[in-house]
Amino acid sequence: MGWRWVEAALPLGIIAGMLCIAGNVQYVIHTKAHGRPKHIGNDMWDVAMERRDKTLLSSSSSSSS
User: Fold this and answer.
1) What InterPro entries does the database record attribute to this sequence (predicted)?
2) How far apart are CA 7 and CA 25, in angstroms?
3) CA 13 – CA 15 distance, rounded (Å)
4) Is residue 32 within 8 Å of residue 40, measured between CB atoms?
5) Considering all CA atoms of the chain, what is the largest pairwise distance in Å, rounded to the nearest integer?
6) What is the CA radius of gyration of the chain?
7) In Å, what is the CA distance from 48 to each residue of 8, 11, 28, 43?
8) In sequence order, what DSSP letters do the residues of 15-42 get, joined into one string?
9) Residue 35, phi-psi category: left (phi > 0), alpha (psi -120 to 50), beta (remainder)
10) Predicted model pTM
């Protein structure tokens, strides 16, 4: 009876390891595709502000040169 927990721990460890691997694979693929880590909670407002900032920075750099 003392070794019964080992029978449950092995499959649980395998499942937990696979979940960790799946999460890390998503992180690596997203980072390689976009060049930066994924923003958590990034909604449409944040995307619009990033576009606005990008256009403002590009227009200010082109007008200064």
Assistant:
1) NADH_Ub_cplx-1_asu_su-1 (IPR017384)
2) 28
3) 5
4) no
5) 78
6) 22
7) 48, 45, 25, 9
8) HHHHHHHHHHHHHHHHHHHHSSPPPTT-
9) left
10) 0.56
b vs e for 39-57, b when ≥16 Cβ sit within 10 Å of the residue's Cβ?
eeeeeeeeeeeeeeeeeee
CA 58-59-63 angle, 5° bins: 120
Question: Can you read off the two tokens belonging to residue 45?
Answer: 């407002």
Tell me, what DSSP letter sits at residue 43? Answer: -
Residue 27 has pLDDT above 90, yes or no: yes
pLDDT of residue 53: 93
